[in-house]
Amino acid sequence: MARPRPIRITEVDDQRLGDYAALTDAALRKRYEHQHGVLIAEGPNPVRALVTSPYPVRSFLVAEERVEAMAPVLASVRAPVYVVTRALLEELVRFRLHQGVLACGVRLPAASPAQVVAGRRRVLVLEGLNDHENLGTLFRTARAFRVGGVLLAPGCADPLYRRSVRVSMGHVLHVPFARVETTAAALELLHGAGFATLALTPDTAAPPIDRLALEGDRTALLLGAEGPGLSAGALTGTTSTARIAMADGVDSLNVAAAGAIACYELARRG
Ligand SMILES: C[S@@+](CC[C@H](N)C(=O)[O-])C[C@H]1O[C@@H](n2cnc3c(N)ncnc32)[C@H](O)[C@@H]1O
Predict the structure, then answer these.
(1) Residues in Cβ contact with 131 at an 8 Å cutoff, skipping those fewer than 6 apart
(2) For residue 3, is pLDDT > 70?
Protein backbone atom coordinates (compact mmCIF):
# COMPACT_ATOMS: atom_id res chain seq x y z
CA MET A 1 0.00 0.00 0.00
CA ALA A 2 1.41 3.42 -0.99
CA ARG A 3 1.94 5.89 1.89
CA PRO A 4 -0.31 8.95 1.55
CA ARG A 5 1.59 12.07 0.49
CA PRO A 6 0.07 14.88 2.53
CA ILE A 7 -0.28 18.31 0.96
CA ARG A 8 0.10 20.93 3.66
CA ILE A 9 -2.21 23.95 3.30
CA THR A 10 -1.81 27.05 5.45
CA GLU A 11 -4.40 29.51 4.08
CA VAL A 12 -8.10 29.10 4.89
CA ASP A 13 -9.12 30.57 1.51
CA ASP A 14 -6.91 28.20 -0.50
CA GLN A 15 -9.14 27.10 -3.41
CA ARG A 16 -8.24 23.46 -2.89
CA LEU A 17 -10.24 23.56 0.36
CA GLY A 18 -13.37 24.99 -1.30
CA ASP A 19 -15.29 21.70 -1.01
CA TYR A 20 -15.10 21.91 2.80
CA ALA A 21 -15.98 25.57 3.41
CA ALA A 22 -18.76 26.60 5.82
CA LEU A 23 -20.14 23.13 6.48
CA THR A 24 -22.67 24.47 8.99
CA ASP A 25 -24.32 26.80 6.46
CA ALA A 26 -27.07 24.43 5.29
CA ALA A 27 -28.46 26.60 2.48
CA LEU A 28 -25.02 27.33 1.04
CA ARG A 29 -23.92 23.70 1.35
CA LYS A 30 -27.03 22.31 -0.39
CA ARG A 31 -26.44 24.66 -3.30
CA TYR A 32 -22.71 23.99 -3.46
CA GLU A 33 -22.97 20.19 -3.19
CA HIS A 34 -25.55 19.95 -5.95
CA GLN A 35 -23.76 22.39 -8.25
CA HIS A 36 -20.44 20.58 -7.81
CA GLY A 37 -21.83 17.04 -7.48
CA VAL A 38 -20.05 16.34 -4.20
CA LEU A 39 -20.78 14.99 -0.73
CA ILE A 40 -18.94 15.23 2.59
CA ALA A 41 -18.08 12.32 4.89
CA GLU A 42 -17.11 13.47 8.39
CA GLY A 43 -15.34 11.37 11.01
CA PRO A 44 -13.28 8.17 10.77
CA ASN A 45 -16.13 5.69 10.21
CA PRO A 46 -17.96 7.65 7.50
CA VAL A 47 -14.61 8.31 5.78
CA ARG A 48 -13.77 4.57 5.93
CA ALA A 49 -17.22 3.81 4.52
CA LEU A 50 -16.66 6.27 1.67
CA VAL A 51 -13.41 4.68 0.53
CA THR A 52 -15.06 1.24 0.26
CA SER A 53 -18.23 2.59 -1.39
CA PRO A 54 -19.00 3.05 -5.10
CA TYR A 55 -18.58 6.84 -4.70
CA PRO A 56 -15.18 8.11 -5.91
CA VAL A 57 -13.12 10.08 -3.37
CA ARG A 58 -12.21 13.61 -4.51
CA SER A 59 -9.96 14.52 -1.56
CA PHE A 60 -9.30 14.04 2.15
CA LEU A 61 -8.94 16.83 4.71
CA VAL A 62 -7.13 15.92 7.92
CA ALA A 63 -5.94 17.76 11.04
CA GLU A 64 -2.18 17.30 11.23
CA GLU A 65 -2.22 15.19 14.41
CA ARG A 66 -4.64 12.68 12.80
CA VAL A 67 -2.60 11.85 9.70
CA GLU A 68 -0.73 8.93 11.19
CA ALA A 69 -3.80 7.23 12.69
CA MET A 70 -5.71 7.58 9.42
CA ALA A 71 -2.79 6.61 7.17
CA PRO A 72 -4.17 3.19 6.06
CA VAL A 73 -7.46 4.78 4.98
CA LEU A 74 -5.77 7.74 3.31
CA ALA A 75 -3.51 5.39 1.37
CA SER A 76 -6.31 3.09 0.23
CA VAL A 77 -7.42 5.26 -2.71
CA ARG A 78 -5.65 7.75 -4.97
CA ALA A 79 -6.87 11.16 -3.87
CA PRO A 80 -5.14 14.28 -2.53
CA VAL A 81 -4.70 14.41 1.25
CA TYR A 82 -4.88 18.00 2.48
CA VAL A 83 -3.33 18.53 5.92
CA VAL A 84 -4.07 21.58 8.04
CA THR A 85 -3.75 22.71 11.63
CA ARG A 86 -6.74 22.10 13.88
CA ALA A 87 -7.30 25.88 14.13
CA LEU A 88 -7.44 26.26 10.33
CA LEU A 89 -9.72 23.23 10.01
CA GLU A 90 -12.25 24.64 12.46
CA GLU A 91 -12.10 28.11 10.92
CA LEU A 92 -12.80 26.51 7.53
CA VAL A 93 -15.66 24.16 8.45
CA ARG A 94 -17.01 26.49 11.18
CA PHE A 95 -17.49 23.99 14.00
CA ARG A 96 -15.44 21.95 16.46
CA LEU A 97 -14.53 18.83 14.60
CA HIS A 98 -13.32 16.51 17.36
CA GLN A 99 -12.24 13.67 15.12
CA GLY A 100 -10.32 15.90 12.71
CA VAL A 101 -10.93 13.98 9.50
CA LEU A 102 -13.19 14.56 6.51
CA ALA A 103 -13.39 13.41 2.93
CA CYS A 104 -15.13 14.75 -0.13
CA GLY A 105 -16.82 12.21 -2.41
CA VAL A 106 -18.29 12.52 -5.89
CA ARG A 107 -22.04 11.95 -6.25
CA LEU A 108 -23.11 9.30 -8.77
CA PRO A 109 -25.80 9.74 -11.44
CA ALA A 110 -29.23 9.15 -9.92
CA ALA A 111 -30.36 5.53 -10.07
CA SER A 112 -33.86 4.74 -11.34
CA PRO A 113 -36.41 3.21 -8.97
CA ALA A 114 -36.44 0.06 -11.15
CA GLN A 115 -32.66 -0.31 -10.77
CA VAL A 116 -32.90 0.02 -7.00
CA VAL A 117 -35.63 -2.60 -6.73
CA ALA A 118 -34.15 -5.11 -9.20
CA GLY A 119 -33.02 -8.30 -7.50
CA ARG A 120 -33.89 -7.05 -3.98
CA ARG A 121 -35.97 -8.95 -1.46
CA ARG A 122 -36.37 -6.10 1.02
CA VAL A 123 -36.99 -2.43 0.20
CA LEU A 124 -37.90 0.64 2.24
CA VAL A 125 -40.20 3.35 0.91
CA LEU A 126 -39.93 6.62 2.83
CA GLU A 127 -42.51 9.39 2.57
CA GLY A 128 -41.86 12.96 3.70
CA LEU A 129 -38.71 12.10 5.66
CA ASN A 130 -37.31 15.61 5.78
CA ASP A 131 -35.06 15.11 8.80
CA HIS A 132 -31.44 14.24 7.95
CA GLU A 133 -30.87 12.39 11.20
CA ASN A 134 -33.91 10.12 10.85
CA LEU A 135 -32.95 9.51 7.24
CA GLY A 136 -29.35 8.63 8.14
CA THR A 137 -30.48 6.34 10.95
CA LEU A 138 -32.87 4.52 8.60
CA PHE A 139 -30.11 3.91 6.05
CA ARG A 140 -27.87 2.51 8.80
CA THR A 141 -30.73 0.24 9.86
CA ALA A 142 -31.33 -0.77 6.24
CA ARG A 143 -27.72 -1.90 5.87
CA ALA A 144 -27.78 -3.69 9.23
CA PHE A 145 -30.83 -5.76 8.32
CA ARG A 146 -29.98 -6.41 4.67
CA VAL A 147 -32.59 -4.12 3.16
CA GLY A 148 -31.33 -3.87 -0.40
CA GLY A 149 -32.64 -0.47 -1.48
CA VAL A 150 -34.58 2.62 -0.48
CA LEU A 151 -37.17 4.54 -2.49
CA LEU A 152 -37.62 8.18 -1.51
CA ALA A 153 -41.12 9.50 -2.10
CA PRO A 154 -41.74 13.27 -2.22
CA GLY A 155 -40.74 15.30 0.81
CA CYS A 156 -37.60 13.34 1.65
CA ALA A 157 -34.37 15.20 2.40
CA ASP A 158 -31.06 14.52 0.67
CA PRO A 159 -29.63 11.28 2.14
CA LEU A 160 -26.13 12.32 1.03
CA TYR A 161 -26.18 15.56 3.02
CA ARG A 162 -23.36 15.63 5.63
CA ARG A 163 -25.61 15.12 8.73
CA SER A 164 -27.27 12.14 7.13
CA VAL A 165 -23.98 10.58 6.03
CA ARG A 166 -22.56 11.08 9.53
CA VAL A 167 -25.59 9.72 11.41
CA SER A 168 -25.70 6.72 9.08
CA MET A 169 -22.01 6.11 9.93
CA GLY A 170 -21.46 6.17 6.19
CA HIS A 171 -23.76 3.19 5.55
CA VAL A 172 -25.92 5.41 3.33
CA LEU A 173 -23.04 5.21 0.85
CA HIS A 174 -23.58 1.45 0.57
CA VAL A 175 -27.37 1.28 0.17
CA PRO A 176 -28.76 2.10 -3.30
CA PHE A 177 -31.60 4.61 -3.36
CA ALA A 178 -33.76 6.44 -5.88
CA ARG A 179 -36.38 9.14 -5.79
CA VAL A 180 -39.91 8.32 -6.96
CA GLU A 181 -42.30 10.96 -8.23
CA THR A 182 -45.21 9.68 -6.16
CA THR A 183 -45.88 6.98 -3.61
CA ALA A 184 -48.43 5.54 -6.06
CA ALA A 185 -45.67 5.11 -8.65
CA ALA A 186 -43.50 3.30 -6.07
CA LEU A 187 -46.37 0.97 -5.20
CA GLU A 188 -47.09 0.25 -8.87
CA LEU A 189 -43.44 -0.65 -9.45
CA LEU A 190 -43.24 -2.80 -6.34
CA HIS A 191 -46.52 -4.64 -6.91
CA GLY A 192 -45.54 -5.25 -10.54
CA ALA A 193 -42.30 -6.83 -9.29
CA GLY A 194 -44.20 -9.14 -6.91
CA PHE A 195 -43.55 -7.27 -3.66
CA ALA A 196 -45.93 -7.35 -0.73
CA THR A 197 -46.08 -3.79 0.62
CA LEU A 198 -46.63 -3.00 4.29
CA ALA A 199 -47.65 0.49 5.42
CA LEU A 200 -46.28 0.98 8.94
CA THR A 201 -48.74 2.85 11.13
CA PRO A 202 -49.35 3.17 14.87
CA ASP A 203 -53.11 2.86 14.20
CA THR A 204 -54.42 0.21 16.61
CA ALA A 205 -56.76 -1.07 13.87
CA ALA A 206 -53.74 -2.30 11.88
CA PRO A 207 -52.58 -5.91 12.40
CA PRO A 208 -49.46 -6.35 14.58
CA ILE A 209 -46.43 -6.86 12.34
CA ASP A 210 -45.13 -9.84 14.31
CA ARG A 211 -48.35 -11.78 13.63
CA LEU A 212 -48.75 -10.80 10.00
CA ALA A 213 -48.44 -13.57 7.42
CA LEU A 214 -46.18 -12.37 4.60
CA GLU A 215 -47.04 -13.38 1.06
CA GLY A 216 -44.17 -14.27 -1.24
CA ASP A 217 -40.48 -13.60 -0.83
CA ARG A 218 -40.31 -9.87 -1.51
CA THR A 219 -41.47 -7.26 0.99
CA ALA A 220 -41.36 -3.48 1.06
CA LEU A 221 -41.95 -1.42 4.20
CA LEU A 222 -43.43 2.08 3.98
CA LEU A 223 -42.68 4.64 6.69
CA GLY A 224 -44.12 8.12 7.06
CA ALA A 225 -43.14 11.53 8.33
CA GLU A 226 -42.87 12.44 12.01
CA GLY A 227 -45.94 14.67 12.17
CA PRO A 228 -48.55 13.46 9.67
CA GLY A 229 -47.46 9.86 9.19
CA LEU A 230 -48.14 8.08 5.89
CA SER A 231 -50.44 9.56 3.27
CA ALA A 232 -53.91 8.14 2.71
CA GLY A 233 -52.69 6.75 -0.62
CA ALA A 234 -49.93 4.78 1.13
CA LEU A 235 -52.28 3.45 3.78
CA THR A 236 -54.91 2.28 1.30
CA GLY A 237 -52.72 1.37 -1.69
CA THR A 238 -50.46 -1.14 0.09
CA THR A 239 -50.97 -4.88 0.45
CA SER A 240 -51.55 -4.38 4.18
CA THR A 241 -51.05 -1.98 7.03
CA ALA A 242 -48.94 -3.16 9.97
CA ARG A 243 -48.34 -1.82 13.46
CA ILE A 244 -45.75 -2.30 16.14
CA ALA A 245 -47.73 -2.94 19.31
CA MET A 246 -47.07 -0.38 22.05
CA ALA A 247 -48.19 0.21 25.64
CA ASP A 248 -51.37 2.24 26.14
CA GLY A 249 -50.75 5.98 26.37
CA VAL A 250 -47.99 6.10 23.73
CA ASP A 251 -49.36 7.26 20.40
CA SER A 252 -46.37 6.53 18.16
CA LEU A 253 -42.68 5.72 17.90
CA ASN A 254 -40.06 7.88 16.27
CA VAL A 255 -39.95 6.86 12.60
CA ALA A 256 -36.36 5.63 12.78
CA ALA A 257 -37.16 3.51 15.85
CA ALA A 258 -40.22 2.07 14.10
CA GLY A 259 -38.13 1.34 11.00
CA ALA A 260 -35.50 -0.48 13.06
CA ILE A 261 -38.08 -2.73 14.72
CA ALA A 262 -39.86 -3.48 11.45
CA CYS A 263 -36.61 -4.22 9.56
CA TYR A 264 -35.51 -6.51 12.38
CA GLU A 265 -38.86 -8.31 12.19
CA LEU A 266 -38.38 -8.93 8.45
CA ALA A 267 -34.75 -10.03 8.96
CA ARG A 268 -35.82 -12.41 11.75
CA ARG A 269 -38.15 -14.17 9.32
CA GLY A 270 -35.25 -14.78 6.94
C1 LIG B 1 -44.10 9.66 14.51
S2 LIG B 1 -44.87 8.54 13.43
C3 LIG B 1 -46.22 9.48 12.77
C4 LIG B 1 -47.37 9.52 13.69
C5 LIG B 1 -48.63 9.88 12.96
N6 LIG B 1 -49.48 10.62 13.87
C7 LIG B 1 -49.33 8.62 12.46
O8 LIG B 1 -50.45 8.38 12.89
O9 LIG B 1 -48.77 7.88 11.66
C10 LIG B 1 -43.84 8.44 12.02
C11 LIG B 1 -43.91 7.12 11.30
O12 LIG B 1 -43.33 6.11 12.10
C13 LIG B 1 -43.99 4.87 11.89
N14 LIG B 1 -44.51 4.42 13.20
C15 LIG B 1 -44.43 5.09 14.35
N16 LIG B 1 -44.95 4.35 15.36
C17 LIG B 1 -45.35 3.18 14.81
C18 LIG B 1 -45.94 1.98 15.33
N19 LIG B 1 -46.23 1.83 16.62
N20 LIG B 1 -46.20 0.98 14.47
C21 LIG B 1 -45.88 1.09 13.16
N22 LIG B 1 -45.32 2.19 12.62
C23 LIG B 1 -45.06 3.22 13.43
C24 LIG B 1 -45.08 5.12 10.86
O25 LIG B 1 -44.63 4.75 9.58
C26 LIG B 1 -45.28 6.62 10.95
O27 LIG B 1 -45.74 7.15 9.72
Answers:
(1) 157, 226
(2) no
